[in-house]
Structures are given as structure tokens and as C-alpha cells.
Write a structure and sequence with these properties.
5% helix, disordered N terminus, six-stranded parallel barrel, 3 helices, Immunoglobulin-like
Length: 620
């Protein structure tokens, strides 16, 4: 009978598959075979690995029994699997070299010890190379060019020297996973289009990833690196660096970079030094820096530095940030020793050790940072600086030095600094338009002046009911010390605040000082005052969560109040939208429903024991 063409093709395919399966065989090698009979079978194994390779075909397996094999070098010309019994018992005193003529099937080397595994120095490779559970003296692989199929995977290996994977051009993955090396690990390429993954390794010296041009992700996670980490590139797609323990610092550098995640790393004794020309949508978050900090420089970058623990010995700033545009710091905890300033004029002081030092044209802002120590808690120079909110600064020499044309400082605490709490400076080229606005801040118990302003400083105006409400008191110098330019003509609005004294005459005499003493140049308007006396009880700690919110917000505070606590929600115009009363007690917890309110900014005000404190809240 005639067979259909499809049946004939099916039979041919099955025959081809059967032949290929038959071609896959296991070839045995045992150096201790002294029978004189060698055919590669289990009963009569070859004495040497090259004999097994000579008999092998693509897809075959070579089983190497325990022993010492002294041949060198060992050229692999077929895509085979070479497996010993263990890296302790199967010792190959030689180097495996992969021929440049191999195809796209993988070469697998496992469970043995050897000097090195490498591609030939010339040619184009498409062969996947997998090295598992091996011991190596060194992995030093220089491949001229690697195609998309030429993946290199090094897994569960130990190198007594170092690992160096280098190629002129690579379009395949290069992965080093769960390995140990007494020396360094270096992955480099002139041109890379393949993902680089370095995960869960113990690296004795440094980890270096270097490319001139690449278009894929570098993923470095959960490694322990005794020395330093370097990632250098010209152009890069997003990099992910997370969960690593790094001994002596991190250096990142790129010309153009589409993003960076540097998360949950522990840098034991060093800093993160990063330099980019352009950087997009990047986060440095949840890291721990011990005796080091963050030094970041970018021409333009959308960079968020948040929730980091930074403890420095004072040899470097905790955060030193320089950019023309971008940058936002949130919820970082920074501790460093106290230092005196360098003695240079404030506006030129680049030598003093700061907790945070920022030079920018346009800066995104800071929120919720906790800072202790330094010559300056924060030194911020920017043409425009957005919100400076909810930060806490203490035990510095100068708490905040802010030099800006336009900035907002809301709900910050600056306390127990040796010198001035805040110095608000002007940008000379914009002297006529400087305005740094202060609302709801606490500046108290500082050794120098509470606030020293050298430009325009709106901090409360009677026809703007949501402005002012600062508590500026108990400072060693004046609560407000005004140094205006001789050419400066304006009114200093400082109404609706609480000062050390309670009457207009005492405040004008003891709490506020105009260094020019010329009301025609700088008239200070500080009436009306906040109509709340001084309580023997400290201001409570207030927590609003979540903030921003879409609906309910939980308000928690602790204070030994002898009278009922009044809680108000007010809008930006001072209109009271909701009032609740809590009975006297040591603590309070209250759920506030803001779901019915339009999106925008509001204030929660608490009145207790003749005091008032306000917190800003954002409704989404």
C-alpha cells in the first residue's frame, strides 16, 4: 500500500530521534585502571580524560572516577558533560579549554577540581558553559565574542584564587551563583547585551562588574564581599544591587543610566560613591552604612534616598549630594560625632563635616529624616528647594543651613544644637526675590540663636491663617536674629508664633533682634502671638499613619495632660472642619475619617495644657 507523505515524515523523525538517543552514551575514565584493556565502558574505563573525549560525540557524558589526573591542557571539541565524583576526590591537574568550533549545545563540568576552565583565546563562541560543584584554582576566561546562546553559569564552586570572566562582546547571560573565592570576582565586557547575575557568593576581595556599553540589567544580590564593590559602565539599563554585605565601600559610575535600585545592603566600613551624568528613577533605600556614607553626583537624576541607617565616624558626610536637578531624602536615620565648623563663612563652607550636604540647582526636598551630630545637621544650597518637612535635627553645631531662593520648611524639630538652630541665607543673584517660608516648626533649646535669617523669611502672616505657628523658644541667643542686606527693603513677617516670652514688649526686647536696627529696611511684624502659655509638660510625640491617606488616619500621641485634649482638622485657610475631644490621660489614640474630604493638604491641631501643636497631612 502507498504511505501518506505525512506518515513517512513522522517515521523519519522518529528514526532520527532514535539515532540521536543511541548516540548519547556514558564514557568512563579511571586513572587506576591497570588491566591493559580500555574501551570506555564501566568494566574497562580509559586511563585519561583526553581518551574519553576522543571517543565522545555531542551530547555524551564522561564519568571520571576518583583519582589524580595530570594531563594538561585538556581540549574539549565536543559538547559533552564531564562529571567527577567530588571536587575533593577527583583532581585534574590541568586546564579545560573549550574549542572555538563547538556548537550551541552545552558543555557541563561538575564535581571535580581543576586549575582552570576557559574558552579558547580567539574565535566566536555560542556554546553554553556550565560549571557546577567544582573546585578551581582560578577561573580566567577570556572570550573574544559570545553569542546569545553562549551562557556562562558558575554555580556552587570554590576558587582558591579568583574568578575573571571577560569578553570583547557578549550577548548572553553570565551568572555566578553560590560560589566562594579567596580572591576577587571580575565580570567585564567591552560591549554587553546580556544579563549579569552575581548572587549569594562569598568573595574574598573585591567584586567588579565593568562594561563600556550594555543594554541589560546587572543583578547583584545577597553576596558577602570582603573588600569593595565596583560597577562601571558607559551606558546601562537598570541595575539591581540588593541584600549584600560589603566590607569596604561601593563605587558606581555610568554616563547614561536608566535606573538603579540599591536596596537592603550592609556596608560595613566604607561609603557608596556614585557618579552619573544622567540617571532616571532610582532608589537608595533600607541600607545600613557603618563608618561611611553616601556620596552621589549626577548632572540630572530622579533619585530617592530613603530609610537608610547611616553611622559615620565623621571622616565623611553621611550624605553628600550634588546635582543640577532632582533628589529626595526621606526617613533616613543619621548619626555622626559632633564637630565644630571649619571657620569659613557659612556660604563658602565646603570643609565642615555635615550629616547632609546638598548642592543643587533644583532640589526635590527632605522629609522625616532623623539627624544627630556634625558641624551642620543639614547644609543645603539650592536655587529652589522644595518641601523640607518633618525632619528632626539635634546635637549638631548648626542644625540647618538653608541657602535658597524659594523653599518651604514645615513641621521640623531643631533642638539641642551647640550653635544656631537654623541659618536661612539668600542667593546673591536673586536677593530681591528670596523667600524661605517656615510653618509649624519647633526650634528650641539651641545654644546660639534659634533662627538667624540673612534674607526674607516669611514665618507667619495674619491674613494667611495657615502660616506661622512655629515654636521658637529657650535658645541661648535670640530666638530670631535678623541680618538683612543693606540694600534689602522688606517686611519680615513673623506672626502667629510662640516665643520664649509672652508679651509684645518682652519679645521685642529679648527674643527678636534686628542687627541693622533700621525699621525702614526691615520691619519685623511678630504680632499677633500664639495665644498659648508655656507648659511644664514637654510637647508630645505625634504619629499620623498613614500619611498621605485616602480615608481613615490613626492619630497616636503620648502626653501627661491634666485637661481634655482638643483635636481639630483645619484646611489651608484655617477653617475648622472637624473637632473631637479626648479626656485627660497619659496617652491618646484617635481614628480620624478624612474620606469625605477633597484631596489636598490639611492640618491636624492638638490643644492641651495651654499648648498647641500642628501636623500637616495630605489627603489623596
Amino acid at each position: 500500500r502507498k504511505m501518506k507523505t505525512s506518515h513517512i515524515l513522522l517515521l523519519c523523525s522518529l528514526f532520527t530521534l532514535h539515532c540521536s538517543l543511541m548516540a548519547q552514551q556514558v564514557i568512563y575514565v579511571d586513572v587506576s585502571n591497570n588491566t591493559g584493556i580500555e574501551d570506555g565502558t564501566m568494566a574497562h574505563p580509559f586511563n585519561t580524560i583526553p581518551e574519553g573525549l576522543q571517543l565522545s560525540q555531542n551530547g555524551d557524558s564522561i564519568s571520571v572516577l576518583s583519582g589524580m589526573y595530570t594531563e594538561d591542557p585538556i581540549l574539549i571539541e565536543k559538547c559533552v558533560s564531564i562529571a567527577g565524583e567530588s571536587r575533593i576526590s577527583t583532581m585534574v591537574e590541568g586546564t579545560f579549554i573549550l574549542s572555538s568550533k563547538l556548537g550551541t549545545l552545552p558543555v557541563l563540568i561538575s564535581n571535580l577540581w581543576c586549575r582552570n576552565v576557559m574558552h579558547s583565546d580567539s574565535g566566536y563562541s555560542e556554546t553554553p558553559l556550565i560549571i557546577e560543584d567544582c573546585g578551581l584554582q582560578v577561573l580566567n576566561d577570556h572570550t573574544a565574542s559570545v553569542g546569545e546562546t553562549g551562557r556562562i553559569l558558575l554555580k556552587n564552586c570554590v576558587a582558591t584564587d579568583s574568578i575573571h570572566i571577560q569578553s570583547a562582546a557578549c550577548a548572553a547571560k553570565r551568572e555566578v551563583i553560590n560560589c566562594e573565592t579567596e580572591g576577587g570576582l571580575w565580570v567585564s565586557s567591552s560591549s554587553s547585551q546580556g544579563t549579569i547575575r552575581v548572587v549569594s557568593n562569598q568573595i574574598g576581595v573585591s567584586l567588579r562588574v565593568s562594561t563600556i556599553s550594555k543594554s541589560d540589567t546587572v543583578f547583584i544580590a545577597d553576596n558577602t564581599i570582603s573588600d569593595s564593590l565596583l560597577v562601571l559602565s558607559t551606558a546601562s539599563d537598570p541595575d539591581v544591587i540588593s541584600g549584600n554585605t560589603i566590607g569596604k565601600g561601593v563605587r558606581l559610575k555610568a554616563v547614561a543610566h536608566s535606573g538603579l535600585l540599591f536596596m537592603e545592603n550592609h556596608v560595613q566600613n566604607g561609603s557608596l560613591s556614585a557618579r552619573y551624568t544622567a540617571l532616571d528613577e532610582s532608589i537608595i533605600g533600607n541600607n545600613n552604612f557603618n563608618d561611611g556614607g553616601i556620596r552621589f553626583q549626577a548632572t540630572a537624576g530622579d533619585i530617592v534616598i530613603r530609610e537608610n541607617e547611616i553611622h559615620t565616624d565623621g571622616s565623611v558626610a553621611a550624605i553628600r549630594f550634588s546635582t543640577t536637578a532632582g533628589g529626595y531624602f526621606e526617613d533616613n536615620t543619621i548619626t555622626l560625632p559632633y564637630f565644630e565648623p571649619s571657620g569659613l563663612p557659612f556660604e563658602n563652607d565646603t570643609l565642615s563635616v555635615c550629616a547632609i550636604n546638598v548642592h543643587s540647582t533644583s532640589f526635590g526636598g527632605m522629609r522625616g529624616n532623623r539627624i544627630s551630630g556634625g558641624a551642620y545637621g543639614v547644609y543645603l544650597s539650592a536655587i529652589a528647594a522644595n518641601d523640607f518637612d518633618l525632619n528632626e535635627i539635634k546635637d549638631s553645631h548648626i542644625g540647618l543651613y538653608l541657602k535658597s531662593v524659594s523653599a518651604y520648611a514645615d513641621s521640623n524639630r531643631v533642638e539641642y544644637c551647640i550653635g544656631d538652630g537654623m541659618i536661612l541665607d539668600y542667593q546673591p543673584e536673586y536677593a530681591d526675590t528670596n523667600a524661605i517660608r517656615l510653618n509649624y516648626n519647633i526650634v528650641r533649646s539651641n545654644g546660639g540663636h534659634g533662627i538667624r535669617t540673612r534674607g526674607n523669611c516669611p514665618m507667619g502672616k495674619s491674613d494667611e491663617p495657615a502660616t506661622g505657628f512655629n515654636i521658637i523658644k529657650d535658645n541661648g541667643g535670640y530666638d530670631l536674629y535678623i541680618e538683612t542686606l543693606t540694600s534689602f527693603v522688606d517686611t519680615i513677617w513673623a506672626q502667629n508664633n510662640e516665643w520664649s516670652h509672652s508679651t509684645e514688649a518682652e519679645i521685642g526686647q529679648y527674643d527678636i533682634y534686628d542687627a541693622n536696627d533700621d525699621p525702614a529696611r526691615a520691619l519685623v511684624m511678630y504680632m499677633p502671638l500664639m495665644s498659648f502659655g508655656v507648659s511644664e509638660h514637654p510637647l508630645p510625640e505625634i504619629l499620623l499613619s498613614p500619611n498621605p491617606t485616602r480615608g481613615y488616619v490613626s492619630l497616636r500621641f503620648s502626653a501627661g495632660c491634666r485637661q481634655p485634649v482638643v483635636v481639630e482638622i483645619v484646611d489651608l485657610y484655617g477653617k475648622v472642619l472637624e473637632v473631637q475631644v479626648l479626656e485627660p490621660g497619659n496617652s491618646g489614640t484617635l481614628d480620624l475619617d478624612m474620606g469625605h474630604l477633597p484631596s489636598g493638604m490639611y492640618f491636624v491641631r492638638l490643644y492641651f495644657d495651654n499648648q498647641m501643636i500642628a501636623k500637616k497631612i495630605v489627603k489623596l
